[in-house]
Structures are given as structure tokens and as C-alpha cells.
Write a structure and sequence with these properties.
alpha/beta; 2-enoyl-CoA Hydratase, Chain A, domain 1; globular; 10 strands; 7 helices; disordered N terminus; six-stranded mixed beta sheet
Length: 263
């Protein structure tokens, strides 16, 4: 093929310029997709990446309900614990049967990881004595596992509680919502923020958005089915993963997340 007299290759330059534009467009789409997916990639990312050095502590008041959040540093939030708690929470849920004031309760401690809903079912099937209430102290974890545990609690007719000195954060309130009655101590804490969903690391933006919306709809359906006002999702969606929105006790009661308050 003959070349132009000036020795240039305009067709190659044009092709190179087009390829560069396509490459930049793809990169822009990947960046946008990552921005949309980042809050929802907890199972695929180290969840401490966006955390701060301080966990929730101290009382909250209207307009002052956001706290920095580090899942590995969940503390006894507002008062002495009603149940002995370990210094270090396990990375996945631990199950302990305790007898307090002649009541057999099941204490759930630690993060919510893959397979914990199945482990919870197996534990309850073999638990002796059978608990009447589930008490929670957890930094949260996988949303889908929390939803399944909450549904199992409701199906079994169990009560739930967050007692003095305990915290139930992130996806943990969706377990709490499963109780037939739901007790919240004024010296305990319920906290919500943006969710993590199990999602592949690379996908087109429209598929990422579809998956996120599907996950949010499942969570809202869970709340509605359990008698909780789905507007709980408003402060959750407004709060980034490295922060936590602590519900005021009366706010939790008004939303129907808690059905009773205690000291």
C-alpha cells in the first residue's frame, strides 16, 4: 500500500486517537462503577480499609448521632454490661446460652460472616436449654446472613434484646428486627449505615446499580414483613460505611424497630 507524499500515516493516527478515546471511556466507566460499588463490597474488601480509630462511645442527642465506626473496636457504648462480654469480639458470630434471672437467653457475639445463618439454625436445633430470647452484641457484617437470621428468629417466635452496655450495628439491627418483642436498653445502642452486599468485583455500571437496588429492596421487604418502618433506611443510606448512625431510643421505638425500652 502506498503512503502519502509527506510520509505521515493519518489512518493509523486516527485509529490511535479513537482507541485512546475508547480506553478513556472504559476507564471512566470503571471508576464510576467502583464509586457506586465501594460501599457494597465488604465481602470482597477488607472492611477496615475505610474505618477510623475510634468506635462508637458516649451518649447521643438529636442532631449528634453519627459516630466514627471501626468494626474491630465495638465498645460497651453507654453503660456497664448486663452480660459478661469478652474484650475481643470474634470475627464471626459466637453463641452462648446464659441463664439470667431464671431466663435462658442466647447471646450472639461478634461479626456476621458467610454461613452464620446456617450455623445459627444448627445451634438452635441442638441448644439445651432452649432459649426464649436472643441478646445481641455485634458490629454487623454480611447483610444477607443477618436477614436470614432475623427471619429464623421470627419463625421460631423468639424475642430479641440489646441490653445495657451492648451495641448492635450495621446489619445487626436486621437480626434484632426478627424478635417478636424487641427490647432496647437506653444504655445500649442500635446503629445503621450504608450496606455491604456480596457482589462480583467487575461488572458494568448498570448491573452494579441493579444489584444494589435489588439488595436494598430485599432489606426493605424484610423490615416491612417484620413490622418495622422502612424509613429506617433513610439514615442508613445517608451514613457512609466508616460512620454509624446511632438511633435515639425513642426514635427506635417510633420506627417500630424497638417495641420496648429499658434502663
Amino acid at each position: 500500500m502506498s503512503q502519502p507524499d509527506d510520509g505521515t500515516l493519518p489512518s493509523v493516527s486516527k485509529t490511535t486517537g479513537t482507541a485512546r478515546m475508547i480506553f478513556l471511556a472504559v476507564v471512566a466507566q470503571l471508576v464510576l462503577g467502583l464509586a457506586l460499588l465501594l460501599p457494597d463490597l465488604g465481602p470482597w474488601l477488607n472492611q477496615t480499609v475505610r474505618t477510623s480509630p475510634s468506635a462508637p462511645s458516649g451518649p447521643v442527642s438529636p442532631g449528634d448521632q453519627r459516630r466514627r465506626f471501626a468494626p474491630s473496636q465495638v465498645q460497651q457504648p453507654l453503660g456497664p454490661s448486663s452480660v459478661p462480654l469478652p474484650d475481643q469480639l470474634p470475627e464471626r458470630l459466637g453463641f452462648q446460652i446464659r441463664t439470667i434471672e431464671n431466663e435462658d437467653i442466647l447471646v450472639l457475639l461478634g461479626g456476621i460472616a458467610e454461613g452464620d445463618a446456617e450455623r445459627f439454625e444448627r445451634f438452635l436445633n441442638n441448644a439445651t436449654p432452649s432459649p426464649t430470647r436472643v441478646v445481641l452484641h455485634s458490629p454487623g457484617g454480611l447483610v444477607i446472613e443477618a436477614l436470614r437470621i432475623g427471619q429464623s428468629i421470627r419463625a421460631r417466635g423468639l424475642e430479641t434484646a440489646v441490653l445495657s452496655g451492648m451495641g448492635c450495628y450495621s446489619s445487626c439491627p436486621y437480626i434484632f428486627a426478627g424478635g417478636t418483642t424487641r427490647q432496647l436498653s437506653r444504655r445500649g445502642a442500635l446503629g445503621v449505615h450504608q450496606h455491604y452486599y456480596d457482589a462480583p468485583g467487575y461488572m458494568p455500571v448498570f448491573l452494579a446499580v441493579e444489584g444494589i437496588q435489588q439488595g436494598q429492596s430485599e432489606t426493605m421487604s424484610h423490615l416491612v414483613d417484620l413490622g418495622v418502618d422502612p424509613s429506617l433506611m433513610i439514615p442508613a443510606l445517608r451514613t457512609p460505611p466508616d460512620q454509624i448512625y446511632i438511633l435515639l431510643p425513642d426514635e427506635a421505638l417510633e420506627l417500630g424497630l424497638a417495641t420496648m425500652l429499658s434502663e
